[in-house]
Amino acid sequence: MKQKKLNWMRLDNAAKIFPAVKRKNWSNVFRLSATLKEPVDTLILQSALEVTVKRFPSMSVRISRGLFWYYLEEIEKVPGIKQDEPYPCSRMHFRDIRKCAFRVLYYRNRIAVEFFHALTDGNGGLVFLKTLIAEYLTQKYKKCFSCGYGVLDRNQEPPESELEDSFLKYEGPVSSSRKDTNSFRLTGTLERNEFLNITTGIIDVNAVLNKAKEYNVSLTAFLISVMIYSIMDIQNIEQPRIKRQKPVKIMLPVNLRNYFASDTLRNFVLYITPGIDPRYGEFTLEEIIKSVHHQMGFELTKKALNARLTTNVKAEKHLILKIMPLFIKNIALKLVYNMVGERKAALSFSNLGMVMLPEDISAYVDRLNFILGVQATLPSNCGVLSYKDKLYINFIRNIEEPVLEQKFFTNLKQLGITAKIESNQRDKYRYEISE
Amino acid sequence: MSYCVNCGVELADSEKKCPLCKTEVINPKYIVNSEAAMPYPPYRPSPSQKVSKNSVIGLLSLMALLPIALSVICDVGINGRIVWSGFVTGALALLYLIIVLPIAKSKIDSVTCLGIDFAGIIVYLYYIDRTIEGGWFLNFALPVTLLVAAVVMLITFLSLYTKSEKLPIAALTMILFGFMNLAIEILLNIAFLTRDYLVWSLYPLATFVILGIVLFYINANKPLKEKLQKKFFI
């Protein structure tokens, strides 16, 4: 029997760093999940997955090793769905990533997909999840559901535009400097057994929008400002001497599809790091909001982003880096990542914005969620999305102390926004007994 | 629904205490099945795997067998009998005794352990002496080993099982070490008939005995001891 030839593709510009900087106990993973109105039928989910992956050739892949670069290679067999873990974004071993770089998990009414970040970004992942849900519902209720809002037609051939590396397409003539100051970093007691704490704040999205409108800023700018304000409080306790304090900055991923026409389902995201320098004096929340709003306005323009994008593409195209054997390249990229990558911000704050589904599908979906895995050396991260009238703010952390979460949600409370808190905290007593 | 009395946030039904400040949720009017509402499967920590002592001993034993087997095969292959491989085997057996005994018998006290180790050393030295017909075992190796054993065991006993301070023990160790050098030179002179006078042992004897006396002196003088402690602590 003639074997099917497996397709392969190069990693996109943003993805190249992820396999290189993986560690023994860390790889960059994020999760998107949908909670349905009824328990998940695992047989149908597996069958729906088998149909869906064919529509996403850039995601149904594994990471393979070439002599000079890692590359994506189409998988022969669709991975089996698994029961969810007690904590999300658990470590994805590299040996697993080399077999399949994503996983589908279920728990009660919830379907979750976790991606190794080299495959796609949050927006691409969301399209996969939405299409998977649509296929699941189609198979379950034996009827056609609408496409649109990111739900793709499974019978359609995947167009080239979805598989392109848009970074290369939009490379400009001038690159911008990457020079940036280091940020204050959160610290704490590392959890045992690699446990990850997840704390979700569920808030009425209109309450936050109205508050943001009071300050004439976007919802993201408002939330980031509250986050900076909270981290500033923490730094004030940890380092009361203002002279010795460090800037407080947040890494904000920017969906470049909003600035450059692109249908790609692969990574097409850049980061900016808005923040404040507490050494300049005591900041009020209003001042922070104003500063963050202007920083975002200054950096989030097509031209500024194009210059940033060009810097990354030029680095990738550098001849010396290109001809460096992979194992040396890995060491070099890891060194650069350790020196620069995670030092420029206290945490990532990734907001996927208002997520919509076709009306007939959203009738079956109660909730959507987005969780960013922790970074290699930063203990916390924050993933946000809005669905229907709720805003879901997910904090993940690998340390015991929920200091940031408490500061953030109590600061929101003081602004008149009450969050409903949900978590995967362990029953300490039972946990100790079972140990 | 319940609210945290400390943070003021609303708490999901799954929470028995506030995830932000760990304050217990007390709401007698609102009792829910928190198990049913848990957003993630319950956490069951995997039992930590500990390497047992027996497996370490087993590994060391197997590792020791390798050089023994190779040297015996080599020796017998070349000489047709055991000539030098006995020394290798004896040395490894001694090393095995010194490393494995404390791992295997953690309850055995250190002084007894040292006694057994020195007994092993004596047996090994006796084997070497007999094999090469050296004639130095009874008049040199045995007394030196017994002397070193007595000093080491005495110091170990004093440091572990008495409430003596560290400084006098260090002073005693120095003095004993000085005299041990003297004894070794005397035994060397007697056993190998080298000379009938002392040459080198008087230098360490004088040095270590005087240093020992200095330490005793410092120990007896409390203000001086404290002052030196302040100056030289690490």
Number of strands of chain B: 2
Helix content of chain A: 25-40%
The ordered H/E elements of chain B are EEHHHHHHH
Radius of gyration from the alpha-carbon trace of chain B, in angstroms:
32 Å
Radius of gyration of chain A: 21 Å
Q: In which order are the strands of the major sheet of chain B placed?
A: 1-2
Biggest beta sheet attributes of chain A: 8 strands, mixed
pLDDT averaged residue by residue of chain B:
88
Task: Return the average pLDDT of chain A rounded to an integer.
Answer: 91
Beta-sheet strand percentage of chain A? 15-25%
| End-to-end Cα distance of chain A | 53 Å
Biggest sheet descriptor of chain B: 2 strands, antiparallel
Approximate shape of chain B = flat
Q: Most extensive chain contact?
A: A-B, 35 and 25 residues
Q: Which CATH class of the largest domain in chain A is shown?
A: Alpha Beta
Could you name the CATH homologous superfamily of the largest domain in chain A?
A: Nonribosomal peptide synthetase, condensation domain
CATH level-3 fold name of the largest domain in chain A: Chloramphenicol Acetyltransferase
Question: What is the CATH-assigned architecture of the largest domain in chain A?
Answer: 2-Layer Sandwich
How many beta-strand runs of chain A? 16
Q: Whole-Å distance between the termini of chain B?
A: 58 Å
Output the number of helix runs of chain B.
Answer: 7
